[in-house]
Amino acid sequence: MMGPKRAPFSGVVEDFKGRVACYKQDWHDGFYSGFRILAPTLYIFFASALPVIAFGEQLSKDTDGALTTVETLASTAICGIIHSIIGGQPLLIVGVAEPTIIMYTYIYNFAKNQPDLGEKMFLPWAGWVCIWTAVMLFLMAMFNAAVVLNRFTRSKNFVMAIPHDSLRNLQDLFSVPPSYIFLAIVPAAMVAGLYFFDHSVASQMAQQKEFNLKNPSAYHYDILILSLTVLICGLLGIPPCNGVLPQSPMHTRSLAVLKRQLLRKKMVRTAKEGMMNNDTSSEVYGKMHEVFIKMDDGKNPNAVHKELKDLKDAMVPEGNGEERVPDVFDPDKYVDGYLPVLVNEQRVSNLLQSLLVAGCLGVMPLIQKIPTSVLWGYFAYMSIDSLPGNQFWERIQLLFITPQRRYK
């Protein structure tokens, strides 16, 4: 995954080169999917927006209205758009998460009880916490800190108020007493450490081995982008974002379903056409093999042979490719059974869902009518939905399965 890096920015440079090579393809694959891309987009939009709305309500209550759902949605949209365009791993979903809410609550309570700060200086002081956090994350990216991962298997009026509040926050930054500016380093260190691991783990979960991703990772580079977005959020006076779970692996899984649908449709049609033309089994398999390579962006033929070995064995009896495809071979059934996991790696779904989150700012009166219990209930559903494929959950299930029925 990542080897030892010594020179400053060597990890960032390597990640950047790897992602630049597939940047154009990231957009092409997204737009090539057509309207089908809307399914995973809407799926991850609801998975991303609803928890952020719930966290916004919690933050508004804990900070006496200093920060609300408007700010959490704005932050999620801004950071999501930035990450989807210039981020390294486009499958990674960013958003305002519960740890950020907890940290901002502590920061608010501390500032409120300080005579030199008070509620008025809460956001400016939180801005300095973000600035120091951004500096620390920048240094982590600079000195390749991500190598440690190898050791771990309101209404329209409210919306229009955001720019005004952001400008006021920039002015108030320099009204914070110097002693508190440097004191902000303490919470910043905790936030930086938390964001570093949360962001990296979410990225890891979005690109697990079983997803068979073909594009390289970008852990170092993404930490650099994270430092940029944290800085922007601090200057704007809104809570920052980081990589979130379980939305990130849910995003990848939904795109795997999309890729499978696109590939299955073409391979089944190709197989049926070959069988109707009385082609030999080797000819039918060869055409399906070509479709697979073309759909998988010119993947190495040798690697494709390994991935389609089971399908070939089912189509070509005993290695004799001169006979017709066996009558028992049903393309719909066998393609489904032997098609390997493939993910439609692209940036469009992440960008679109971020734009939809931004659109929520225009319907705040409707959002405010959603019962909080519905929001937290959907969050609970997301947690349950993310269990299939989770190694920890699967190992727990083994405790209730007799040894004779376990996979060897």
TrEMBL record:
It is found in: Membrane. Signal peptide: none annotated. It holds the Pfam family HCO3_cotransp. One of its GO terms (cellular component) is plasma membrane. Its main location: membrane. One of its GO terms (molecular function) is solute:inorganic anion antiporter activity. GO terms for biological process: monoatomic anion transport; monoatomic ion homeostasis. The chain crosses the membrane at residues 37-55, 67-86, 92-111, 123-149, 179-197, 218-238. Residues 8-157, 176-260, 343-403 form the Bicarbonate transporter-like transmembrane domain. It is a multi-pass membrane protein. Keywords: Anion exchange, Ion transport, Membrane, Transmembrane, Transmembrane helix, Transport. Belongs to the anion exchanger (TC 2.A.31.3) family. This is Bicarbonate transporter-like transmembrane domain-containing protein.
